[in-house]
Request: fold
Amino acid sequence: MTSAAFLDLAIYASFVMVMLSLAIAFIRLAKGPTLADRVVALDMMTVSIIAVCGVVLVGTGEPALLDVALVLALVGFLATVALARFAERRDARENGEHQ
Reply:
């Protein structure tokens, strides 16, 4: 097996595993049952999409995908922080605490 064939095999295997993790995270996002489960699943989906960008970057050599992955990571971080703050305020409101 040549190194190019091994790289192609590794890229395909990586792509399949990342797609599997994306599907599992989507199932958790749909089923829940709590908001925390959904936030973690959404974060996992963001990480999986960033991994797809990385796998495609290695396969094609397109450097623009690195910028896309970086922007997705920043947006994913901000979305996670915003959802965590929302969940914290919602829990405080349900428990009768005022902020």
User: Anything to note?
Assistant: The mean pLDDT is 91.
